[in-house]
Amino acid sequence: MTTRLTRFSTEHAASRTYKVQSIDRAVAMLNLLARSDVPMSLTTISTQLQLHKSTVQRVLRVLEGHHFVSFNANGRYTLGLRLNDLGNRALQQFNVRDRALPHFRMLVAEIMETGHLCVMQGDAVVYLDKIAPSRSVCMTSRIGKTNPVHCTSVGKALLAFSSSELQEKILADIKYERLTPKTHANRKALLRDLEVIRRRGYAIDDEEIEEGVRCIGAPILNADGQPVAAISLSGPTFRMTMHRVPAIAKRLVSCCADISKTLGY
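Above: the chain's sequence. Below: its structure in token form.
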């Protein structure tokens, strides 16, 4: 029994070490590239990390496939732009959530409809926070959930104010799944909506993701004027009437502007 347990422990530890080792090597390569002021060759990376070229090349190919490193025309490696995106998102999510909370709470307490704080992740939005009012009919949602960008007020608000390059990239990935009869079914319809959103400063999800539910969303902008998050207010259509939308939207846009100021906008 002792021999069997010892063998299992040894094999389990070796397995654990192997998995950690591969990750450690990838991180070591990223750190090395980060410290370098110039693109690095496979030979240089291999020499500095004291690893076989074949090992380094395998790891770099995986990292390149995920856009964590870039391989240029001269056969040298640099950090990939995906790392910039991840770093920005980590910073944005950490700052935005903390800075938005006081304003977010006041908004929901005033309007008395369910509020969501969201960020964009590819062609979807992720719910970072939710505040529900003390009402008998509230929206069913949860933190961490994702929804399509093209049929949510937060998604459309984020997309409308994104750079043309990012907007084009996301538009190309959207599947235009119709969740209700009012969901945008094609790129042309969504682009028309995005143009309206940019002009008025907020987006409306008019039963586009769920029948009987209407949402209003507005972006939170960073110091560069880029959207880093969005806040929405959602409610049943019998309460969140189109007649109420302009007044609610005005307060929502003001709230998001106040949060944007704390981020340097």
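Residues 1-18 have pLDDT under 50 and may be disordered.
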